[in-house]
Amino acid sequence: MQFTTIGVVGAGTMGNGIAQVFAQAGLTVIMADVSQSALDQGLRSIGNSLARLVKKDLQTEEGAAAVLARISVSTRLQDLADCQLVVEAATENAAIKEKIFRELDSVVGKDCILASNTSSISLTTIAAWVSAPERVIGMHFMNPVPLMQLVEIIRALQTGDACHQAIHQLALTLGKTPVTVKDGAGFVSNRVLMPMINEAAFVLYENLATAEDIDTVMKLGMNHPIGPLALADLIGLDTCLSIMDILHREFRDSKYRACPLLVQLVAAGRLGRKSGHGFYRY
Fold first, then answer.
1. Which of 52, 62, 120, 279 has CA atoms 20 to 30 A from the CA of 193?
2. What is the residue extent of each domain of the chain?
3. What CATH class has 5-182?
4. pTM of the model
């Protein structure tokens, strides 16, 4: 399958990063969001990301300008009608995603692949929302998208072989490393990562060590490039809590119970880097 125009639904941290990597690969990108201000902020984030690449001599100024020129924005999903692939990167909320996929199903062509960047919601459930579920697949990018190598490809029960092969090849074209996994709560990445972050939150909650010392143990003792609490702040504590709640609901196992401190921080609006305060202040 030939991809020339890609739609990205959501202009937040993940959405604008996904739009950037597609545009860097020479593809035309339409980034859609319900909010024009979110689209404007998304474009600014892409511009800032490209500027950092230029500063590091990883991109030329002319190349960065060409990448930005390949990205247009819209507040209407109808403008994605001619895309060969649409990647949904909206907030991790099943009701919101269902609304998006049902509308996309009525807008795009019959051969358009519909992908989700969901980090924990069942792709089999998502595929059931559209008329041709065999064209639905998960493309779970890692944050920050332009720098992280992995794309976790999730096959729904209904995903067709042709769809999977096309997305696997596209990930390689983007310069990413695709890893295909079966559909299951949290897939591989977050089923392993989120309980670790949650346990680090419990260690802090129980006053066994400071946030800095917990992260230092994991960085120097386990060779992690970033500690779990700092990583949670980067991901967003609301996202971490949402994923833990999904794991707890899907597995019905108390080991996935969210740490009360994580719940409290989210309730207080301390969501990490994006709010200026999480486990750390920014």
1. 52
2. 5-182, 192-275
3. alpha beta
4. 0.89
Instruction: Report the alpha-carbon distance of residue 132 to residue 144 in Å, rounded.
Output: 31
Q: Does 5-182 match 192-275 in CATH topology?
A: no
Q: Exactly one of 119, 120, 198, 242 is catalytic; which is it?
A: 119
Active site (annotated) includes residue 212: no
**What are the φ and ψ backbone dihedral angles of 21, each rounded to 5 degrees?**
-70, -35
CATH number for the segment(s) 192-275: 1.10.1040.10
Q: What is the mean pLDDT of each run of 10 residues along the chain (282 residues)?
A: 95 96 98 97 97 95 97 98 97 93 96 95 95 97 94 97 98 97 93 97 98 98 97 94 92 96 98 96 96
Question: Given the structure tokens 């709560």, which residue do they identify?
Answer: 185
Please tell me whether residue 54 adopts helix, strand or coil conformation: helix
Cβ atoms of 272 and 233 closer than 8 Å: yes
* Catalytic residue of the set 16, 45, 190, 198: 190
Q: Is 269 helix (H, G, I), strand (E, B) or coil?
A: coil
Annotated active-site residue 275? The verdict is no
Q: Has 119 been annotated as catalytic?
A: yes
Task: Read off φ and ψ for residue 183, nearest 5 degrees.
Answer: -75, 130
